[in-house]
Write a structure and sequence with these properties.
There is one protein chain. This protein has helices at 74-80, 100-113, 127-137, 152-162, 187-204, 225-229, 328-342, 367-379, 405-414, 444-451; strands spanning 9-12, 18-19, 35-38, 89-94, 118-122, 144-148, 166-170, 207-212, 232-237, 244-252, 260-266, 269-272, 291-298, 301-313, 321-324, 349-355, 387-389, 392-393, 399-400, 419-423, 437-441. The protein has 477 residues and is of the alpha/beta class. The protein folds into three domains: 1-41; 69-274, Rossmann fold (3-Layer(aba) Sandwich), CATH 3.40.50; 278-471, 2-Layer Sandwich (Ribosomal Protein S5, domain 2), CATH 3.30.230. It has a nine-stranded mixed β-sheet with strand order 6-5-7-8-4-9-10-11-12, sandwiched between helices. Helix 7 packs across helix 8. Belongs to the RecA family. RadA subfamily.
Length: 477
C-alpha cells in the first residue's frame, strides 16, 4: 500500500517551525523568507538490513586518524587549536575584500609544499585570476591543483579524480546543483552543496575549508543549518583602511574558541603577527597630554594599545563626543563620571577619543585608560611614558577588577613598560616582574593621583602608592 501523504505544509529552513499556510516571516525565529512548502510523509524510514560500519567500543576507536596537522600558518593553527583535522570541515566567513581567499591560497601552497595533495575549487574567479594572485604572493606548488567550477556535480567529480588531502571551496554560495531548483546561494542550494561536500570530506578524511559570504549584519549568509553542519566556524574581520586582520573561532569542535589570530595584509600577501601590539602604540620623543596605554584581551591574548584623547572648547551649541575604535556610549559615561566625581569641566568641552592603528577595543577593562586620557587632555598633563592602565570604571567612580591582571602586567613588562595602574583585586596582581611598579587602586581619584603630579587635581586624597618616575624613565622597547 503506498505511503499516505498528508496535506503539504510549510516549514522554516532556519529553525524547523511548521505552519499550515505560507507566511513571509517565521513565527518562531522571526527570520524573513525562510518558510518553504514541504510535503510531510507519514511513513517512517525502515532500518537497514545490514550495516557497513558496525559500532564498536569507544576504547577501540583509533583516535590517531583525527590528529592535528599544522598548516604552516601559526596564527591559523592557534585559532584552530593546533592545525587541520582529517575529515574536519571549516567554514571561514568574512566581508568582501578582507583577505579570505589570500589566506586560504597561502595555506593551500604551504600544505602542498609539505607533501600533501591540495585541490582549490573557485567559483568566484577564473583559474587565471587565482593564478595571478598566487604569483603575487608566492603561493605556487606542484601538488596544488586549481579548478574553476560552478556546478556541484562537476566539483564532486574533480574531488574524486584528484583525491586531495586538503580541499578548499571558494565559496560555498557560488556552487549549485543542477538537480535542484533555485539559483546559487539560495537556501536549498547552499544546504545541498554543504551536505554533499561534508559527506565527501567525512567519508574520505579530507580536511576541508569552505569560504562563506556574510550578510549586512555580519552573520553567515544562507541557512543557519550551514553553521550546524560544519565542525569549525571562523570569522575573519578587519577594517578596510587598516592592514590588521583578526581571525576568531565562534564554533570549534576540536578546541577552544578563546584564541584570536592576528594577520597583516600587505601587497605581497598575508602574514601572521606574533606581536601585534607594536601596531597600536605610537612612538614620540616627548610625552603628549591626552594619551594613555592600556592592555586589552583579545580572547586569551593580551594586546597593548594606545588610547588618544583631545579636549577642545565647544564649537557649537552642544558639546561633541566623537569616538573611533571605542564604544561611544561608554566614552560618554566616562565623561559624565569625570565631571561628576572629580569636578573636571568636560560638560562644555568637545571630546575626541580614538585608538591608534584602527584597533577596536570593546571590553570594559579599557575604561580606566580612556578616563585617564581624557583627564590628561583636560589638565594638559601628560601621563609618564612607561605607564599602562586598565580597569573597569563604575558610575560611582570605583575601579572594578578585571580578568587576567597578571597576564596583562607580564605583557606590559615584556614590551618594556615600567609600571601599571591596575584595579585592587582579591587575588592581587600576581607575580610582578622585577623593577616593575604596580599601583593597585579602588577609585578613579586614586588612579589619577598615581600618575599625575601631586596637587594637580585639587581635593583628591592620595590613597594609592605613587608610581615613581625612576621606574618609568626607560621608554618601551
Amino acid at each position: 500500500m503506498p505511503a499516505k501523504t498528508k496535506t503539504p505544509g510549510y516549514r522554516c529552513s532556519e529553525c524547523g517551525w511548521t505552519t499550515a499556510k505560507w507566511v513571509g516571516r517565521c513565527g518562531e525565529c522571526q527570520a524573513w523568507g525562510t518558510v518553504d512548502e514541504v510535503g510531510l510523509v507519514s511513513s517512517r524510514t525502515t532500518p537497514a538490513a545490514s550495516v557497513a560500519n558496525p559500532a564498536q567500543p569507544i576504547g577501540q576507536v583509533d583516535a590517531a586518524t583525527a590528529g592535528y596537522r599544522p598548516t604552516g600558518v601559526t596564527e591559523l593553527d592557534r585559532v584552530l587549536g593546533g592545525g587541520l583535522v582529517p575529515g574536519a570541515v571549516i567554514l571561514l566567513a568574512g566581508e568582501p575584500g578582507v583577505g579570505k581567499s589570500t589566506l586560504l591560497l597561502d595555506v593551500a601552497a604551504r600544505t602542498a609544499r609539505a607533501g600533501s595533495r591540495v585541490l582549490y575549487i573557485t567559483g568566484e574567479e577564473s583559474a587565471a585570476q587565482v593564478k595571478m594572485r598566487a604569483d603575487r604572493i608566492g603561493a605556487l606548488a606542484d601538488t596544488l591543483f586549481l579548478t574553476a567550477e560552478g556546478d556541484l556535480g562537476l566539483a564532486l567529480g574533480q574531488i574524486q579524480a584528484i583525491g586531495p588531502d586538503l580541499l578548499i571551496v571558494d565559496s560555498v554560495q557560488t556552487l549549485s546543483s543542477s538537480e535542484l531548483d533555485g539559483t546559487a546561494g539560495g537556501v536549498s542550494q547552499v544546504r545541498e552543496v554543504a551536505a554533499s561536500i561534508i559527506n565527501v570530506a567525512k567519508s574520505n578524511n579530507i580536511s576541508t575549508l569552505l569560504v562563506g559570504h556574510v550578510t549586512k549584519d555580519g552573520s553567515v549568509a544562507g541557512p543557519r543549518l550551514l553553521e550546524h553542519l560544519v565542525d569549525v566556524v571562523c570569522q575573519f574581520d578587519g577594517e578596510r583602511h587598516s592592514r590588521l586582520r583578526l581571525l576568531r573561532a565562534t564554533k570549534n569542535r576540536f578546541g577552544s574558541t578563546d584564541e584570536v589570530g592576528c594577520f597583516d595584509l600587505t601587497e605581497t600577501g598575508i602574514e601572521g603577527l606574533d606581536d601585534p601590539s607594536r601596531l597600536f602604540v605610537t612612538r614620540t620623543k616627548q610625552p603628549v597630554a591626552g594619551t594613555c596605554i592600556t592592555v586589552a584581551m583579545e580572547g586569551r591574548r593580551p594586546l597593548v594599545a594606545e588610547v588618544q584623547s583631545l579636549v577642545t572648547p565647544m564649537a557649537a551649541g552642544q558639546p561633541r563626543r566623537s569616538t573611533s575604535g571605542l564604544d561611544s556610549s561608554r566614552v560618554a559615561m566616562l565623561v559624565a563620571v569625570l565631571q561628576a566625581r572629580l569636578g573636571l569641566r568636560l560638560g562644555t568641552l568637545d571630546s575626541y577619543v580614538a585608538t591608534v592603528g584602527g584597533v577596536k577595543l570593546s571590553e570594559p577593562a579599557v575604561d580606566l585608560a580612556t578616563a585617564l586620557a581624557l583627564a590628561s587632555s583636560c589638565l594638559e598633563q601628560p601621563i609618564p611614558p612607561g605607564v599602562v592602565a586598565f580597569g573597569e570604571v563604575g558610575l560611582a567612580g570605583e575601579i572594578r577588577p578585571v580578568q587576567d591582571i597578571n597576564q596583562r602586567v607580564t605583557e606590559a613588562e615584556r614590551l618594556g613598560f615600567g609600571g601599571a595602574v591596575v584595579p585592587l583585586s582579591p587575588q592581587g596582581a600576581g607575580k610582578v616582574p622585577a623593577n616593575f611598579r604596580v599601583a593597585q587602586v579602588t577609585t578613579l581619584q586614586e588612579a589619577m593621583e598615581a600618575v599625575f603630579p601631586s596637587g594637580t587635581v585639587a581635593g583628591i586624597m592620595v590613597r594609592a602608592p605613587r608610581l615613581e618616575q625612576s621606574h618609568l624613565d626607560s621608554p618601551p622597547r
